[in-house]
Every structure is written in C-alpha cells, then in structure tokens.
Specification:
Layout lengths: L3 E4 L3 H13 L5 E4 L9 H4 L3 E2 L10 H19 L4 E2 L3 E3 L4 H16 L5 E3 L1 H7 L9 E4 L3 E3 L3 H15 L9
Parallel strand pairs: 1-2
Antiparallel strand pairs: 3-8, 4-8, 5-7, 6-7
Length: 173
C-alpha cells in the first residue's frame, strides 16, 4: 500500500516525487515508469532551455512562474551539481515587421526584470557572423540551457534524495 502513486518518470513525475519526499519523509511513494529509467521520453528529448520569461505578459502568472522557475531551476542545478550554461539568447529581427515585434519584446523584457542588450546590425555580425539581422536585435545574456548530461546528473540527484529518505520511488515492472 502506498501513500502516493506517481505515473511517469519525466521531470514532472520525478520532481513531484522529490517534493513529496521532502514534505512527507515517511510516506510510501510509488513512481511508475514504463521505460528502463527516468526521463526517456519528452523530458529526455527536450532542448534543456531554462526559460527566462521573454514572451510572457509582465505581471501575469505565466511570467511570475517562469521567472521563479528560472531561479529555482538554477538553484536546484547548483545544489545538486548539475551543470548548466548561461549561454545567452539572441532575438533577431530580419524585417521591419519583426523590428516592431522586437521593440515590444524589448519593453516586455524590461518589465519582466530581465537583463538585456540592444544590438546594432554591426554588433550582431561581430558576435555571430552567420546571422543577418537588422539593428535592434536584442541579446539576453542571462538566458540559460542545461547541458547534454543534465538528465543523467538529475537522475542521480533525484535517486540520492530518494535514498536519503525512508522511501525509494519504485519503477513499474
């Protein structure tokens, strides 16, 4: 008999199990996963982007959750020895219409408290010669991505947390 049964061993299922272990250390938790290990489907195939909150309406729940999730994900990675790259993100306008949209994103990123930098066409070419864009493209230096090894590191970290508790998440046979 289990107190909690979680279906799916992706990032949501594993994160849920980890939180339940922290909140209810004596609970019996079953984690059901049809594959041989966690994060073998969508979680394991995603790009690893740690979203910064560029596109969400300032003050909206999506923007608030994205910003909080960005900080929490980086803190989790640091606490658990999971590498991530603060590689930045370039938003490139290639037409006058896209330039209008870029200005709106520029204002939105400011309202969401994101560090950003406006690039001229020349500055864009200096940073990335293979991109052609108009003046006004913006760079978001704090945008991040988890490394290719994040899944293995995350799995190890979540398993260690489970082993420290009185409960170990179980895989389905």
């Amino acid at each position: 008999m289990y107190d909690f049964v979680i279906i799916g061993g992706g990032i949501i299922g594993m994160s849920t199990a980890m939180q339940l272990i922290e909140i209810y250390p004596d609970a019996r938790i079953a984690l059901l996963e049809k594959e041989t290990g966690p994060a073998c489907h969508q979680t394991g195939h995603n790009s690893g982007v740690i979203h910064a909150g560029v596109y969400y309406t300032p003050g909206s729940l999506k923007a608030q959750f994205c910003l909080a999730g960005n900080r929490a994900t980086k803190a989790f990675c640091e606490q658990n020895g999971i590498r991530y790259d603060v590689c930045g993100k370039m938003l490139v306008a290639t037409s006058p219409l896209e330039m209008e949209r870029m200005r709106a994103l520029w204002d939105r990123t400011a309202a969401n408290g994101l560090q950003r930098e406006w690039l001229s066409a020349g500055e864009l070419r200096e940073r990335e010669p293979n991109i052609t864009g108009l003046s006004g493209s913006s760079s978001l230096p704090a945008a991040s991505s988890a490394t290719a090894t994040w899944r293995r590191q995350w799995r190890r970290s979540s398993n260690q947390k489970a082993e420290r508790s009185s409960t170990t998440p179980k895989s389905a046979p």
